[in-house]
Amino acid sequence: MPDNLPLDFIGFPRLSGHALLSLRGLDAAVFAHAQFSSDVTALPERHWQWSAWLSAKGRTLAVFQLLKVDAEHVLLVLADGDADAIASQLQRFVFRRKVKVEVRSDLIVAGSFTAPEAASGAAIAVDGETLELDVGSDALPRTLKIGPAPAEAPAPDAGFELAWRQSDLRYGLPRLAADQREQWTPQQLGLDRLNGYSVKKGCYPGQEIVARTHFLGKAKRALQLLRVADGVESGAKVQQNGADIGTVASVAGDLALAVLPLELAEGALSVGGVEAHGVPLLDGLAR
């Protein structure tokens, strides 16, 4: 690891696939509240929550961490998706609101499988220009740090990035490839486990579908973690007793999150002709 890395990031490999999108201005929180699935106006400053951006049909376009850094600064941590494209699409809805939408390529996101030094739960710890987030639990401690990019960033560590992605899946956090975006409702992706959407706040894209599904109890499918054969891709069908019963929504190595019926019949599951086994999801990532 380069010697000129900031001290705050020593021992924290960079998560090169993560991107940061900043909403800054007097109307930043109000704008985010109107666009995303979580209750942004109720979020205290220096706290974060899970959130999602949905299509008008209530399908999930992106899942992310939403940080209210201060009253005029909201920061999105995007583990997946094209940040530039998302920024461009959000810009279309700014109209006369006082908010600047900007991809923060000057900042990096790094992680560690250690407990945070100061952050706790949804509370963000601020040390100069560095933000520390608690993104784990006692069962699987994890810390995320966000700060200025060093002059020479370390090379990506594929092994660490895979381990981080797998830990996301173990917590039930969907990592959506391009072919799985705009396919699933928040309920199907289990975002209720993360407190990733609100059914009480005002309108946002897809809110009517989300609320109807919630209050009428129409959700018939949910997320389940499976251990599968290496090489399985998102979009693969999950089979039981010779019939397709679900779809792999997110995959990392030999772990996959699949959208399956809430009530399963007796019989082994398989993906790609290889038997798949259910794995319990970890709790503790809701914010």
UniProtKB/TrEMBL annotation:
This is Folate-binding protein. Coiled coil: none annotated. It comes from Stenotrophomonas aracearum. Pfam families: Beta-barrel_CAF17_C (PF25455). Keywords: Transit peptide. Residues 232-276 form the CAF17 C-terminal domain.
